[in-house]
Structure formats: structure tokens, C-alpha cells
Request: fold
Amino acid sequence: MRYPQARWVPSPHFGYPTGRRGQLVKPEAFVYHIMSGTLTGCDAWFNNPASQASAHFGIGKLGPVHQYVELTDAPYANGKIQKPDLTIPWLKKCVVDDINPNTVTVSIEHEGKTGEVWTEAMYQASKALTVWLLDYYDLWAYVDDFNNRFIGHYKIDSVDRPNCPGTGWPKTRLKTDLIAMKEDEMMTDQQIAEAIGRIARAGQLGLDKGIVGTEKLLDLIASLKSDIAALKASGGTVPHKHSLSATITGETEVA
Reply:
């Protein structure tokens, strides 16, 4: 699966063993990186046969998004575990059960050096990608567990990557924005049904006498959810809750 707003720049480096597909089903977390270089350099590094390096996405300072590995595949950005933060439940499970973190995370690289303030274009592009991923996987509940689900690379490797993505990553802003979006736009099935019922009873749906039962509406919503889930499973795309923003040598390591 590919992000519709991304330029496809495929890397040959993915999978365990190399080239194996389909190892990422649902991410446990989204991991943010800094490239310690340019987007052009990252493109070249991820396509260098000798590098054995890759991530899912790279985002430039001016806002372009490049995708290097399919979302269903495991790249190499997050595989090296060194003095990880074991207060993060899914990461502790990776250590205890010998799970490669690349098989349970989405990796996002960002242009620049550690400590640099992110450009507005890069932040907006990164946020738009994050929102799309939350919509695609239906993982908005992760926002309520933000510190465990949206992490810097240093949480996995505090030895070699202690400053990745560094102090320039606007983590607090991202958290604030995602919480606001979740609170503004997410409704329960019951709330949706009741809202439609009020409209129906007001005679604004063009139905006979404007009466629709809440239970019937709940059945309809459940049916739509089932259709969407089936479409996702088949590899198709579904309408997203949120609009996509129009605005978007690499730092990596072998697992």
C-alpha cells in the first residue's frame, strides 16, 4: 500500500530475509527520524546496494513526501534495539519475544539535522501523513496513548541514535493537533445514529413521515464499517475522515 500524496522511490532493502513481503500487518507505533542529511541524499542512500538501509517514508523541508517501501513490508530503519525504553509495552514485548520492531512500526524520516527547527511545510506534510495513516489503519485510539504510539527513534536505540529525531521534532505540537482533530471529528455510532435520527424526524431526509429508527441506523453504520474493513483487507482504498495537506546522506541502520 502507498500513500497517495507520495512520490514512489522504491528501495530494494526490506524484509527478513531480504525481499520477503507482507511482514507488517498493523503498526504498534509510528517512529519519527531525522535524516542527518538531505532528502536527495536519503533517496540515494536507500537505493545504494551497499547501504542495506531504508524506511517507509522520507519528508523534505519544502514538503515533498517520498515512499521507499510498501506499508505492508518491513524496512530496516528501526531494527537495531540498544538500551530501549522498556516502559513502552509494545517495545518491551519486542525485546522479550525477539520481535523485530520493523515488523510492527511505520518509519518516517525527515530532512535536516538533529536540533534544527522543522519548517512549517515539513511539519504539515508529516502531520498529514500521520493523519492518513491513522485513518487508513483506523488507529485514532492511539492518540489517547500518544507517548507510547508516536515515538522518536531514540526510544528504540538510545546508544547510536540518542538525538534522533532530536529537539527539533515538534512532538508536543503534533500531540495537541491530533488530540484536537480526534475530539472534533470522531463520533460514536450511537451519536451518529441519534444525529441522523433527529434530522430524519425533522423531515429532512425525504423519507415517509421523516421517521427512522435508531436501531436501523446502527445496523446501517455497522454494515458500512464491515464494507470498509473488507475493502481494506482486499487492498482497496477507503474515503478518509480528514483532508490531506497539499504542502511536503540518510540516517538509518541495518536491523
Q: What stands out?
A: The beta strands are 7-8, 29-32, 57-59, 65-67, 105-110, 150-152. The domain at 7-185 is CATH 3.40.80.10 (Lysozyme-like). The two ends are 22 Å apart (CA to CA).
